[in-house]
């Protein structure tokens, strides 16, 4: 898939994969899967039900993400809204939500999960993780 715009329309699921590319996502995605390495995804004009990241050095900025699952290293996700759940497996991920995060599960090292309005429950395995 070449660099470009991916549209979820009104409730579709989409996948993005590759390496060292930049994508823009628009619409309302029931699920967005991002896999590969060194991908940058601008989803500031998208609402995402479930965001799944698989790979290293993936960066996603979204208007809203409800459920987040991250598998990999050095990934980052920023959401302008609250999140219901965050599940991180890997090292050095940075997750930031402007709203509250209801539940966090982290397995790995040196991950940072931060919420502008607080984190509900947190299960953390590994060292150097920061939940705030």
Protein architecture, described:
The mean pLDDT is 95. Strands 1, 2, 3, 4, 5, 6, 7, 8 and 9 form a 9-stranded parallel beta sheet that branches. The chain has 132 residues and is mainly beta. The protein is globular, with a radius of gyration of 14 Å. The protein starts with a strand and ends with a strand. 33% of the residues are buried. The chain contains no helices and 9 strands. 0% of the residues lie in helices and 77% in strands.
Task: Summarize the model shown.
The chain has strands at 4-56, 59-71, 76-79, 83-89, 94-97, 101-107, 112-115, 119-125, 130-131.
Portion of residues in beta strands equals: over 45%
Alpha-carbon distance between the two ends: 36 Å
Shape: globular
Percentage of residues assigned to helices: under 10%
Radius of gyration: 14 Å
Q: What is the overall number of helices?
A: 0
Largest sheet: 9 strands, parallel
One letter per element, helices H and strands E, the order comes to EEEEEEEEE
Q: How many strand elements? A: 9
Category from helices, strands and their pairing = mainly beta
What's the pLDDT, averaged over the residues? 95
Uncertain segments of ≥5 residues (pLDDT<50)?
none
């Amino acid at each position: 898939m070449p660099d470009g715009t991916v549209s979820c329309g009104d409730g579709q699921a989409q996948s993005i994969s590759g390496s060292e590319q930049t994508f823009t996502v628009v619409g309302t995605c029931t699920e967005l899967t991002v896999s590969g390495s060194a991908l940058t995804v601008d989803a500031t004009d998208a609402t995402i039900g479930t965001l799944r990241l698989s790979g290293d050095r993936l960066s996603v900025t979204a208007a809203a993400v409800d459920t987040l699952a991250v598998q990999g290293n050095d990934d980052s996700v920023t959401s302008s809204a609250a999140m219901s759940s965050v599940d991180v497996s890997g090292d050095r991920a940075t997750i930031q939500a402007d709203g509250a995060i209801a539940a966090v599960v982290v397995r790995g090292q040196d991950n940072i999960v931060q919420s502008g309005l607080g984190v509900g429950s947190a299960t953390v395995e590994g060292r150097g993780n920061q939940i705030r």
